[in-house]
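== Protein entry: sequence and backbone fold ==
=== Local backbone shapes as whole numbers ===
==== Amino acids and backbone structure tokens ====
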Amino acid sequence: MTIDYHLILTVVNSGYAEAVMQAARRAGARGGTIISARGTKAQGEADFLGIPIQPEKDIVLILSAAQTCSAIMSEIATGAGLNTEGRGFSFALPATDVTGVLNLIDEKDA
């Protein structure tokens, strides 16, 4: 059996990572990893994609089955307020050669 996975990366201002995880869990995510980070900007640049840049960031990494990726990202966008000023952005990348994720596979999918 082969299951396709996606890695969802969400970058938010510091303090919003738990809101991201709560929203992701509502859409079926089982967990994630939160990394503290610091954003940078070019001299004189006020924003990135219309989002004001603040230096302290949280990065939330969530590995999901491909079929649940869109639902998780949609819930993160609305539930964590990504579309409000200064809250962040999210994107997904295909993940290949994934190991150690048996807890992500439901018995009914096996």
